Amino acid sequence: MRRIAIAGNWKMYKTQVEAKEFLTNFLAELKSGSADNKLTLLFAPFTTLPVMLAATGAYGSYGLNIGAQNLHWADNGAFTGEISAPMLVELGIKYVIVGHSERRQFFGETNETVNQRLKAAQKHGITPILCVGESKQQRDRGETEAWIMTQLKQGLEGVDQQNLIIAYEPIWAIGTGETCEVAEANRVIGLIRSQLIDRNVTIQYGGSVKPENIDEIMSQSEIDGVLVGGASLDAKGFARIVNYQSL
Question: CA 123, 69, 130, 6: dihedral to nearest 10 degrees?
Answer without folding.
Answer: 110
